[in-house]
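Checklist before submission:
- one chain only
- standard amino acids only
- sequence pasted in full

Submission:
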Amino acid sequence: MKTTFYINPVPASRPRVTRWSTFFPKRYAAFKEEMKELLKDTVYKPEEGNLYVKLDFYVGMPKSWSKKKREHKAGKFCDNNSDIDNYIKAILDSLEGIYYNNDKQIVMIRARKYYGLKPRIEYRQEEIQDE
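Returned file contents:
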């Protein structure tokens, strides 16, 4: 199963704790809400078995970059300061309960991050059998 989400990938961040409440930073909270909106009409029976997930993140480029630099970096590996495992956590948390019941079902992951002119997340999953 392959799906493309046309959303700018955002790395997951730790919840912030104050004396009065706990909250996520605005950028991550906005990503979670946008993913919820993208997934609201999804009708899919969650997988039950072990899964192999492939993720390709196409991260939007800063608006401050020149057109020449954008064209040069498009499609190349993304070397920004965000860790790839945080991008993985953000999308997998959003898809839990829709494409699979629990993220502990994911036993193998392949993830890559690129710069993209059209920010998106390409998601593929396949059920794998124990050998």
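Reviewer check: The chain is about 25% helix and 30% strand.
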